[in-house]
Protein backbone atom coordinates (compact mmCIF):
# COMPACT_ATOMS: atom_id res chain seq x y z
CA UNK A 1 0.00 0.00 0.00
CA UNK A 2 1.23 3.30 -0.79
CA UNK A 3 1.81 5.82 1.95
CA UNK A 4 -0.12 8.96 1.68
CA UNK A 5 1.07 12.36 2.90
CA UNK A 6 -1.14 14.13 5.43
CA UNK A 7 -2.95 16.97 3.88
CA UNK A 8 -1.47 20.39 4.50
CA UNK A 9 -3.38 22.86 6.48
CA UNK A 10 -5.65 25.03 4.49
CA UNK A 11 -4.23 28.44 3.64
CA UNK A 12 -0.68 27.54 4.62
CA UNK A 13 1.75 29.01 2.11
CA UNK A 14 3.84 26.64 0.21
CA UNK A 15 6.96 28.85 0.61
CA UNK A 16 8.15 30.22 3.91
CA UNK A 17 7.34 33.88 4.49
CA UNK A 18 10.07 36.49 4.49
CA UNK A 19 11.48 37.56 7.80
CA UNK A 20 10.23 40.97 9.12
CA UNK A 21 12.40 44.01 8.40
CA UNK A 22 14.82 44.99 11.09
CA UNK A 23 13.67 47.72 13.53
CA UNK A 24 15.51 51.02 13.17
CA UNK A 25 15.28 53.68 15.82
CA UNK A 26 14.72 57.11 14.27
CA UNK A 27 16.36 58.84 17.21
CA UNK A 28 19.54 56.90 16.69
CA UNK A 29 19.94 58.37 13.21
CA UNK A 30 19.11 61.81 14.46
CA UNK A 31 21.64 61.50 17.25
CA UNK A 32 24.22 60.27 14.84
CA UNK A 33 23.80 63.28 12.57
CA UNK A 34 23.44 65.89 15.38
CA UNK A 35 26.16 68.47 15.99
CA UNK A 36 26.84 70.51 19.12
CA UNK A 37 27.80 74.15 18.41
CA UNK A 38 29.90 75.74 21.13
CA UNK A 39 29.76 79.57 21.13
CA UNK A 40 32.97 81.15 22.39
CA UNK A 41 32.49 83.37 25.45
CA UNK A 42 35.07 85.93 24.35
CA UNK A 43 32.51 88.63 23.50
CA UNK A 44 30.64 88.09 26.77
CA UNK A 45 33.87 88.38 28.71
CA UNK A 46 34.73 91.57 26.87
CA UNK A 47 31.34 93.04 27.68
CA UNK A 48 31.77 92.16 31.33
CA UNK A 49 35.21 93.74 31.40
CA UNK A 50 33.80 96.85 29.68
CA UNK A 51 31.03 97.14 32.27
CA UNK A 52 33.54 96.76 35.07
CA UNK A 53 35.69 99.56 33.63
CA UNK A 54 32.71 101.82 32.94
CA UNK A 55 31.60 101.91 36.57
CA UNK A 56 34.81 103.44 37.99
CA UNK A 57 34.94 105.93 35.12
CA UNK A 58 31.41 107.13 35.85
CA UNK A 59 32.20 107.40 39.56
CA UNK A 60 35.35 109.40 38.77
CA UNK A 61 33.38 111.71 36.48
CA UNK A 62 30.78 112.33 39.19
CA UNK A 63 33.51 113.11 41.73
CA UNK A 64 35.20 115.54 39.34
CA UNK A 65 31.91 117.34 38.67
CA UNK A 66 31.19 117.55 42.40
CA UNK A 67 34.68 118.88 43.14
CA UNK A 68 34.36 121.47 40.38
CA UNK A 69 30.99 122.57 41.71
CA UNK A 70 32.32 122.96 45.25
CA UNK A 71 35.63 124.58 44.29
CA UNK A 72 34.37 126.83 41.50
CA UNK A 73 34.88 130.47 42.55
CA UNK A 74 31.87 132.48 43.69
CA UNK A 75 31.37 136.23 43.59
CA UNK A 76 32.57 138.15 46.67
CA UNK A 77 30.10 139.40 49.23
CA UNK A 78 30.05 143.20 49.36
CA UNK A 79 28.39 145.18 52.15
CA UNK A 80 28.54 148.68 53.57
CA UNK A 81 30.28 148.58 56.92
CA UNK A 82 30.00 152.30 57.64
CA UNK A 83 28.74 155.45 55.97
CA UNK A 84 29.73 158.70 57.62
CA UNK A 85 28.23 161.91 56.32
CA UNK A 86 30.55 164.90 56.45
CA UNK A 87 28.53 167.54 54.62
CA UNK A 88 25.44 167.76 52.45
CA UNK A 89 23.70 170.82 51.08
CA UNK A 90 21.10 171.63 48.45
CA UNK A 91 21.23 175.00 46.73
CA UNK A 92 18.34 176.46 44.74
CA UNK A 93 20.17 179.45 43.22
CA UNK A 94 21.20 180.10 40.55
CA UNK A 95 20.13 176.50 39.79
CA UNK A 96 19.27 173.49 41.90
CA UNK A 97 22.50 171.72 42.81
CA UNK A 98 23.74 169.22 45.38
CA UNK A 99 26.97 169.14 47.35
CA UNK A 100 27.82 165.95 49.23
CA UNK A 101 30.89 164.86 51.15
CA UNK A 102 30.85 161.43 52.79
CA UNK A 103 33.22 158.66 53.90
CA UNK A 104 32.30 155.11 52.95
CA UNK A 105 33.78 151.89 54.32
CA UNK A 106 33.03 148.80 52.22
CA UNK A 107 33.39 145.26 53.55
CA UNK A 108 34.51 142.55 51.10
CA UNK A 109 34.29 138.88 52.04
CA UNK A 110 35.97 136.28 49.86
CA UNK A 111 34.07 132.95 50.19
CA UNK A 112 36.41 131.03 47.87
CA UNK A 113 39.32 128.74 48.61
CA UNK A 114 41.57 130.92 46.47
CA UNK A 115 42.78 134.49 46.91
CA UNK A 116 40.87 137.33 45.26
CA UNK A 117 42.73 140.07 43.40
CA UNK A 118 40.37 142.99 42.85
CA UNK A 119 41.28 145.76 40.45
CA UNK A 120 39.21 148.62 41.87
CA UNK A 121 36.26 149.68 43.99
CA UNK A 122 33.72 151.83 42.20
CA UNK A 123 31.12 153.82 44.16
CA UNK A 124 28.39 155.70 42.28
CA UNK A 125 25.75 158.00 43.71
CA UNK A 126 22.51 159.16 42.14
CA UNK A 127 19.16 160.73 42.87
CA UNK A 128 15.91 159.13 41.68
CA UNK A 129 17.74 157.18 38.99
CA UNK A 130 19.77 160.15 37.74
CA UNK A 131 23.54 159.73 37.99
CA UNK A 132 25.28 162.43 40.03
CA UNK A 133 28.87 161.20 40.27
CA UNK A 134 31.25 158.40 41.22
CA UNK A 135 34.50 157.71 42.99
CA UNK A 136 37.01 154.94 42.28
CA UNK A 137 39.61 153.56 44.65
CA UNK A 138 42.63 151.35 43.99
CA UNK A 139 42.80 147.58 43.96
CA UNK A 140 44.05 145.06 46.46
CA UNK A 141 44.06 141.42 47.49
CA UNK A 142 41.76 139.43 49.75
CA UNK A 143 43.02 136.11 51.07
CA UNK A 144 41.01 132.92 50.75
CA UNK A 145 37.97 132.90 53.05
CA UNK A 146 39.03 136.24 54.50
CA UNK A 147 37.50 139.69 54.93
CA UNK A 148 38.93 143.03 53.85
CA UNK A 149 37.77 146.63 54.23
CA UNK A 150 38.11 149.41 51.68
CA UNK A 151 37.73 153.12 52.40
CA UNK A 152 36.29 155.46 49.79
CA UNK A 153 35.75 159.21 50.11
CA UNK A 154 32.76 160.46 48.16
CA UNK A 155 32.74 164.13 47.23
CA UNK A 156 30.28 165.90 44.91
CA UNK A 157 30.61 169.65 44.64
CA UNK A 158 27.73 171.61 43.16
CA UNK A 159 26.25 168.89 40.95
CA UNK A 160 23.29 170.33 39.07
CA UNK A 161 19.96 168.55 39.20
CA UNK A 162 17.81 169.53 36.24
CA UNK A 163 15.13 166.90 35.59
CA UNK A 164 14.20 166.17 39.22
CA UNK A 165 14.79 169.63 40.68
CA UNK A 166 11.20 169.96 41.89
CA UNK A 167 11.30 166.57 43.65
CA UNK A 168 14.62 167.49 45.25
CA UNK A 169 13.18 170.70 46.69
CA UNK A 170 10.15 168.79 48.00
CA UNK A 171 12.39 166.18 49.68
CA UNK A 172 14.47 168.99 51.15
CA UNK A 173 11.35 170.57 52.65
CA UNK A 174 10.38 167.21 54.20
CA UNK A 175 13.84 166.81 55.70
CA UNK A 176 14.65 163.49 53.97
CA UNK A 177 16.47 163.34 50.62
CA UNK A 178 16.94 159.78 49.21
CA UNK A 179 20.23 159.11 47.45
CA UNK A 180 21.05 155.91 45.55
CA UNK A 181 24.50 154.47 46.19
CA UNK A 182 26.01 151.53 44.29
CA UNK A 183 29.34 149.98 45.34
CA UNK A 184 30.94 147.51 42.93
CA UNK A 185 34.10 145.42 43.20
CA UNK A 186 35.66 143.67 40.21
CA UNK A 187 38.57 141.25 40.24
CA UNK A 188 39.89 137.81 39.36
CA UNK A 189 40.25 134.53 41.20
CA UNK A 190 43.05 132.23 40.06
CA UNK A 191 41.50 128.74 39.90
CA UNK A 192 44.51 126.46 39.25
CA UNK A 193 45.63 127.58 35.76
CA UNK A 194 42.47 129.62 35.08
CA UNK A 195 41.85 133.29 35.85
CA UNK A 196 38.12 133.66 36.47
CA UNK A 197 36.55 137.14 36.64
CA UNK A 198 34.28 137.80 39.61
CA UNK A 199 32.17 140.77 40.62
CA UNK A 200 30.45 141.87 43.80
CA UNK A 201 27.85 144.61 43.96
CA UNK A 202 25.62 146.20 46.57
CA UNK A 203 23.01 148.92 46.24
CA UNK A 204 21.88 151.24 49.01
CA UNK A 205 19.17 153.84 49.40
CA UNK A 206 20.31 156.43 51.93
CA UNK A 207 17.88 159.04 53.25
CA UNK A 208 19.77 162.13 54.40
CA UNK A 209 18.51 165.14 56.33
CA UNK A 210 20.45 168.17 55.05
CA UNK A 211 19.25 170.36 57.91
CA UNK A 212 20.97 168.49 60.74
CA UNK A 213 23.52 166.61 58.54
CA UNK A 214 22.39 163.14 59.61
CA UNK A 215 21.40 159.87 57.98
CA UNK A 216 17.70 159.25 58.57
CA UNK A 217 17.42 155.78 57.08
CA UNK A 218 19.63 153.40 55.15
CA UNK A 219 18.54 150.28 53.25
CA UNK A 220 21.11 148.10 51.43
CA UNK A 221 20.68 144.91 49.41
CA UNK A 222 23.21 142.89 47.36
CA UNK A 223 22.75 142.36 43.64
Automatic annotation (TrEMBL):
<dbReference type="GO" id="GO:0098542">
    <property type="term" value="P:defense response to other organism"/>
</dbReference>
<keyword id="KW-1133">Transmembrane helix</keyword>
<keyword id="KW-0812">Transmembrane</keyword>
<keyword id="KW-0472">Membrane</keyword>
<dbReference type="GO" id="GO:0016020">
    <property type="term" value="C:membrane"/>
</dbReference>
<dbReference type="Pfam" id="PF03168">
    <property type="entry name" value="LEA_2"/>
</dbReference>
<feature type="domain" description="Late embryogenesis abundant protein LEA-2 subgroup">
    <location>
        <begin position="105"/>
        <end position="199"/>
    </location>
</feature>
<dbReference type="InterPro" id="IPR044839">
    <property type="entry name" value="NDR1-like"/>
</dbReference>
<feature type="transmembrane region" description="Helical">
    <location>
        <begin position="53"/>
        <end position="72"/>
    </location>
</feature>
<dbReference type="InterPro" id="IPR004864">
    <property type="entry name" value="LEA_2"/>
</dbReference>
<protein>
    <recommendedName>
        <fullName>Late embryogenesis abundant protein LEA-2 subgroup domain-containing protein</fullName>
    </recommendedName>
</protein>
Amino acid sequence: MAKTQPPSAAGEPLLPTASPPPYLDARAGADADAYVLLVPAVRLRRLRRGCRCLGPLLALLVLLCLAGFLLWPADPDVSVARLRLAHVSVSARPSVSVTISAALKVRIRNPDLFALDYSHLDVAIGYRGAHLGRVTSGGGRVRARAVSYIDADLSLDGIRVVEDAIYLLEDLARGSVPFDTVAEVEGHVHFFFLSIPVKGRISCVVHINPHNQTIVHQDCYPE
